[in-house]
């Protein structure tokens, strides 16, 4: 029987068919544009927020009058709309002066220092569904929850971008990396399963080819600053260094060639949400849910060097205090690797695979 | 649920919710002495912090065999029949940083003070407005009107304004006060930021009048009353209140933990400040507390027996912020602290893989070394930010009587020498310094107990809680590498060893039984009592021992990555790591 350390394992979904629910929410308050039950596609706008530009005019100074006089000199009252170039306020007399509106908008207020506040044109930010699915919940003013059925591969790192596109499988086995010359204009608009490792040339070619995204097992850490500047999502399934795709991941990926996919490479280190690739498929998947405490028979992927990316199964037995080669002590369970070895692995250094 | 206890508590459950870990500690009076008994931990559950806290306590139950939770998962209190505890205290650093905009008259003076004041709590500088900016008044071509537009775009939780020495006649800061009011008036639908005015107190009445009832206002004593004096502590306290209130609103489950503890959870940095204050009360000197957590780095400093500064950098957590840290300092600067021949690219891969799953245990020696290298750079950046406000010579050659290091990286350093060297390489104290490590993760508990049960907090600091790593002597003066800087005489178990300490070297004397170290510096070198004046140290229970750090101040690092890594290895070897 494993101890309480097993109650809350890290988890990663790698599933050929699952029911997935994802929230698509605006940062601030806005308008939800779809109703519950509606089927959506990646390009469907599900919500939008509008934010008006605010312009402040120092009217007292521009007119050359005391702040208290500005309200009396307004040509457009507070609360009224105004067009760009339209006179807003005027001081008549020998040295007459006029303020014209710099924008289309509305006069919002005049403060005690004689400043005029205009709300200008409205910027609209649209939030797209980014996946095929059905709206199963609406969060008023914020967005929706979408349910979809299909393949889900969660990864280890992402560069913070998201997009949708057609998957192109560029490699034939888990340890192969794509030949960079194959990343060319013919790949425009595609999400490439680019193989084991990405290098500078692959990133540069992908940028030139205007791909919609890259999925690879690994990449050298020194390339992170470059990867973070690229406008398309990059997902690493294993981590930094040079690793092949772990077998369960490649097994799912190789079935997805020429499918429409959503690639969401946003994540926060330390949080339990992971960057992910989702491919909608015909059929009905089981809802993704944690099976509870880690227990014997669970399939796990190891997270720490020197076993990063290796797959194994939790053995029956009790938690033990284990001394790591680094000198640290940690509570561990026994894992039998698919390669045959049996190891003590700290609970913190593994994640359960959910299929 | 917490019920008041009339007597001093004899058993305490201290819960600490961090960004990465939630820890539960059992502290108990055994045979009349307060002791740290055991701990349990679990990854923090950000979607609801309660399950993570319950699992941490269950782990503690498993480690102690003592029932601490009732059937509903609530801590049992008060203690009855060996189950539960007399007191539950809760601390937390979970939650988003406070978004703070700062404004000041002069970039390097009041604006810098306002920025440091904002960083007294976990915060993110949303914007900065400086009167003398080269871009234009308040950093805009449009002056104060541009400030309004920027405030509307970035909408901070708080605005801190500083400027004008005490009694000066400059009224320019009122333009920013007006700008804050106008921004709030322009967006009545949003919760207004709190304005903290910490400038010239002669303007208080005008500030109050300018904001009226529109903007929530706190008037603080001037944080820069004279050009040479910075007092950010009061602003820090005000922001700490804001930050805690924000966390209660935004961290799901924290309100439940508040009920368990019966009070608002104390912030980590405030707990660190209180612990440092206790340490300062033992003597009459300067104490530095450093806490390097998974998602932020913080410090608290006392000079002349009073906490004068707290500082938090939410972008310097190790390992979570490893990628950002690399961008700030560069790979060569960081890898220069890693001894050995492992290629730099491999070390960077190790470090960033640690950052992907920050709760993992560094499994290999290489992973530990690169983690400690990142910790040094994070601490260096934190100290650089802080020392600009330290008085006089302390900014360049700080004489700390005590340095305390805590947080997950130091706590889990496999060898005490590794933790000691992180301190010596970054703080670079001079004179005689006692270096302590919070090995059990007691700082949050000590801080919280300072309020609930001050006697217990004091006892933890004095007796059981903190590991004394070393007493370090750092001679200060000018000498070429290899020159003799002081003469030492070591008496240990009746045997006497004499020798010379040479510039550029570090010497460690393990404490084996009764150990006495007499030191006589060269006439132009100072160990804290004046040039050429000697001192005698007695070893107690130092886990590293007595240390002479004659590497020089400031520490000069050799040119070239290879040489730096070789020196880093030699220094660790001298220290016994």
What does this structure look like?
The complex is a heterodimer of chains A (355) and B (577). In chain A, 9% of the residues lie in helices and 45% in strands. By secondary structure, chain A is mainly beta. Chain A has an 18-stranded mixed β-sheet that branches. Chain A has a 5-stranded antiparallel β-sheet with strand order 2-4-9-8-5, with no helix packed on it. The two termini of chain A are 24 Å apart. In chain B, the strands form 4 sheets. Chain B has an 8-stranded mixed β-sheet, with helices on both faces. Chain B is 35% helix and 25% strand. Chain B is globular and about 75 Å long. Chain B contains 17 helices and 22 strands. In chain B, helix 12 packs parallel to helix 14. The interface between A and B is large, with 47 and 59 residues.
Task: For the structure shown, list the relevant keywords.
heterodimer; A: 355 residues; mainly beta; 18-stranded mixed β-sheet; 5-stranded antiparallel β-sheet; 5 helices; B: 577 residues; alpha/beta; 8-stranded mixed β-sheet; 5-stranded mixed β-sheet; 22 strands; 35% helix
How is the secondary structure organized here?
The complex is a heterodimer of chains A (355) and B (577).
Chain A: E1 10-25, E2 31-32, E3 39-40, E4 45-57, H1 59-63, H2 70-73, E5 81-82, E6 87-91, E7 97-100, E8 105-110, E9 116-128, E10 133-139, E11 143-154, E12 157-158, E13 162-169, E14 190-198, H3 200-208, E15 213-219, H4 224-229, E16 234-240, H5 247-253, E17 260-264, E18 276-280, E19 286-287, E20 299-302, E21 311-314, E22 320-323, E23 329-337, E24 342-346, E25 350-354
Parallel strand pairs in A: 1-19, 1-25, 13-14, 14-15, 15-16
Antiparallel strand pairs in A: 1-11, 2-4, 3-10, 4-9, 5-8, 6-7, 8-9, 10-11, 11-18, 12-16, 13-17, 17-18, 20-21, 20-25, 21-23, 22-23, 23-24
Chain B: E1 11-17, E2 21-30, E3 33-43, H1 49-64, E4 87-92, E5 98-104, H2 107-118, E6 123-130, H3 144-154, E7 158-162, H4 173-186, E8 194-197, H5 204-211, E9 217-219, H6 233-250, H7 254-261, E10 266-267, H8 268-282, E11 287-292, E12 297-303, E13 306-313, H9 322-329, H10 331-335, H11 344-356, H12 365-387, E14 402-406, H13 408-411, H14 416-426, E15 431-437, H15 443-452, H16 454-464, E16 467-474, E17 484-492, E18 495-502, E19 505-509, E20 515-521, E21 535-539, E22 545-550, H17 561-575
Parallel strand pairs in B: 1-4, 4-10, 5-6, 5-7, 7-8, 8-9, 11-14, 14-15, 16-22
Antiparallel strand pairs in B: 1-2, 2-3, 11-12, 12-13, 15-16, 17-18, 17-20, 19-22, 20-21
């Amino acid at each position: 029987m494993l101890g309480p350390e097993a109650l809350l394992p890290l988890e990663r979904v790698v599933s050929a068919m699952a029911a997935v629910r994802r929230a698509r929410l605006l940062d601030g308050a806005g308008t939800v544009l779809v109703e519950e039950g509606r089927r959506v596609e990646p390009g469907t706008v599900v919500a939008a927020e509008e934010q008006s530009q605010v312009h402040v005019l120092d009217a007292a100074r521009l007119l050359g009058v005391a702040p208290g006089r500005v309200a009396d000199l307004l040509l457009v009252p507070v609360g009224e709309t105004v067009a760009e170039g339209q006179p807003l306020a005027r001081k008549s007399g020998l040295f007459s002066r006029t303020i014209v509106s710099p924008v289309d908008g509305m006069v919002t207020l005049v403060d005690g220092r004689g400043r005029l506040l205009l709300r200008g044109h409205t910027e609209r930010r649209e939030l797209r569904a980014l996946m095929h699915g059905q709206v199963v919940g609406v969060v008023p003013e914020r967005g929706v929850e979408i349910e979809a059925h299909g393949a889900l591969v969660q990864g280890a790192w992402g560069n913070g971008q998201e997009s949708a596109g057609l998957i192109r499988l560029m490699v034939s086995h888990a340890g192969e990396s794509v030949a960079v010359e194959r990343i060319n204009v013919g790949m425009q608009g595609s999400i490439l399963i680019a193989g084991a490792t990405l290098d500078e040339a692959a990133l540069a070619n992908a940028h030139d080819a205007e791909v919609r995204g890259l999925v690879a097992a690994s990449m050298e850490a020194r390339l992170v600053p470059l990867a973070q500047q690229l406008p398309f999502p990059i997902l690493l399934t294993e981590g930094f260094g040079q690793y092949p795709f772990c077998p369960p991941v490649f097994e799912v990926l190789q079935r997805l060639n020429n499918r429409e996919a959503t690639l969401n490479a946003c994540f926060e280190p330390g949080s339990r949400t992971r960057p992910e690739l989702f491919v909608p498929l015909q059929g009905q998947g089981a809802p993704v849910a944690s099976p509870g405490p880690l227990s014997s028979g669970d399939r796990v992927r190891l997270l720490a060097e020197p076993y990063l990316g290796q797959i194994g199964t939790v053995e029956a037995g009790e938690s033990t205090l284990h001394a790591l080669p680094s000198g640290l002590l940690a509570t561990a369970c026994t894992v039998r690797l698919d390669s045959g070895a049996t190891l003590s692995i700290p609970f913190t250094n593994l994640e359960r695979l959910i299929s | 649920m917490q019920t008041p206890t009339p007597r001093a508590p004899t058993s305490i459950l201290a819960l600490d919710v961090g960004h990465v870990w939630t820890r539960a500690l059992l502290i108990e009076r055994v045979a009349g002495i307060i002791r740290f008994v055991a701990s349990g931990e679990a990854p923090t559950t950000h979607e609801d912090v309660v399950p993570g806290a319950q699992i941490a306590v269950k782990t503690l139950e498993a480690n102690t065999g003592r029932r601490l939770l009732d059937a509903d998962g609530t801590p049992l209190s008060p203690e009855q029949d060996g189950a539960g505890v007399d007191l539950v205290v809760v601390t937390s650093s979970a939650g988003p940083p406070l978004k703070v905009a700062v404004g000041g008259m002069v970039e390097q003076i009041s604006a810098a003070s306002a920025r440091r004041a904002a960083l007294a709590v976990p915060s993110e500088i949303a914007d900065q407005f400086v009167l003398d900016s080269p871009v234009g008044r308040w950093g805009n071509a449009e002056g104060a009107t541009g400030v309004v537009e920027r405030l509307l775009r970035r909408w901070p939780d708080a605005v801190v304004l500083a400027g004008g020495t005490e009694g000066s006649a400059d009224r320019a800061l009122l333009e920013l006060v007006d700008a804050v009011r106008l921004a709030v008036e322009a967006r009545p639908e949003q919760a207004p930021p709190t304005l903290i005015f910490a400038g010239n107190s002669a303007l208080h009445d005008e500030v109050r009048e300018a904001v009226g009832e529109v903007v929530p206002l706190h008037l603080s004593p001037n944080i820069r009353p004279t050009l040479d004096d910075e007092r950010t502590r009061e602003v820090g306290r005000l922001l700490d209140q804001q930050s805690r209130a924000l966390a209660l609103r935004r961290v799901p489950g924290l309100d439940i933990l508040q009920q368990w503890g019966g009070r608002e959870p104390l912030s980590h940095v405030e707990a660190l400040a209180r612990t440092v204050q206790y340490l300062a009360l033992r003597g009459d000197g300067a104490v530095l507390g450093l806490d390097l957590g998974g998602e932020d780095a913080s410090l608290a400093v006392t000079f002349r027996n009073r906490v004068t500064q707290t500082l938090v950098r939410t972008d310097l957590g190790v390992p979570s912020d490893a990628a950002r840290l690399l961008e700030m300092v560069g790979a060569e600067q960081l890898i220069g602290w890693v001894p050995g021949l492992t290629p730099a690219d491999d070390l960077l891969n190790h470090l960033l893989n640690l950052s992907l799953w920050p709760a993992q245990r560094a499994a290999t020696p290489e992973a530990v070394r690169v983690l400690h290298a990142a910790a040094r750079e994070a601490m260096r950046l934190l100290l650089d930010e802080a020392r600009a406000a330290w008085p006089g010579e302390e900014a360049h050659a700080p004489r700390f009587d005590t340095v305390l290091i805590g947080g997950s990286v130091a706590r889990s350093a496999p060898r005490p020498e590794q933790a000691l060297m992180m301190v010596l390489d970054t703080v670079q104290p001079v004179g005689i310094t006692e270096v302590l490590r919070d090995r059990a993760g007691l700082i949050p508990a000590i801080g919280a107990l300072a309020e609930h049960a001050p006697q217990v907090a004091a006892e933890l600091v004095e007796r059981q809680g903190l590991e004394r790593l070393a007493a370090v002597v750092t001679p200060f003066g000018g000498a070429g590498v290899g020159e003799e800087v002081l003469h030492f005489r070591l008496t240990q178990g009746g045997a006497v060893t004499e020798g010379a300490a040479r510039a550029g070297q570090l010497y460690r004397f393990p404490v084996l039984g009764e150990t006495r170290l007499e030191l006589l510096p060269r006439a132009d070198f100072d160990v804290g009592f004046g040039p050429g004046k000697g001192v005698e140290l007695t070893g107690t229970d130092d886990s590293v021992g007595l240390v002479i750090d004659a590497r020089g101040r400031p520490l000069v690092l050799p040119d070239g990555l290879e040489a730096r890594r070789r020196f880093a290895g030699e220094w660790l070897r001298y220290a016994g790591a």
